[in-house]
Amino acid sequence: METYKNVTTSNASEQSSTSWKLFAAGGVIVALVAANGFLFWRSSTMEAQMSNMRNSTAVELNELKQTHSTYATEAQRSIEELNQQLAQAQSQSQKATSIAAQQARANADRVARKAEELVNTLAAENKLAQARVDEAIGAVRQAHDETSARVGEVSTEVGTVKTEVEKAKSELEAAIADLKSVRGDLGVQSGLIATNAKELSALRELGERNYHEFAITKKNGMVKVGTIAMQLKKADTKRNKFNLQVIADDKRVEKKDKTINEPVQFYVAGARQPYEIVVNEVTKDKIVGYLATPKVISARR
Asked: Are the CB atoms for 213 and 290 separated by under 8 Å?
């Protein structure tokens, strides 16, 4: 009996252990299936992403190829244009260089001609200037000779002039010595009087008075002489006498029966010395002489 119970217990334990193993194995299988499913899903997802990336990359590569082709075409066109411009520039440069060289040669030729003309002109002017210098030197020498001769003549003339001056001085001194001082019609002793033009010139040289010459006729009427006015009323040629009317300081004075070379005197306000009229010549209706006035006239008060 006990043996049966043991066998029964042993079988039950074995069955229980087998059931557990089967359950565990089933769980593992399920887990493996689930893992395989996830891996399959993940693989499918990644393959789809890789396909999308390949497609996107292919599109981008095509775009890059097109862009590169466009850039390459434009670059080639730019290079060709630059080559054309460079060739044109080189051609223009060569042409400009040739023109510049021709212009430079022409300018050089023109400058050379100008220089040659200038040299010739300077040579001609130098020759002309030398001729003028020689002519001037000759003229200076001639002028020097003439000047030397003229100096001799001038020396002679100076000697002559000096002699004449000394003669004139002697004559003046003699004329001054001949001058007389007489009493006037007012009883005042006059200064020296002149009887002719020569003596009057000597009086002027002395410079003691102011002298105003006059020649008056009856038909002249009242005539201004210096600061006064005079009128000839009568001229007696036989007796060398005359009548004269004088206006001074708004006063009218008549001098009658005066003779030649007689000082006719009258006073003027402010003058300490009398004015003097001296007639040197009496002709028909005409007298010739001078008026002598003091150098200094005091101001009226």
From this structure: yes
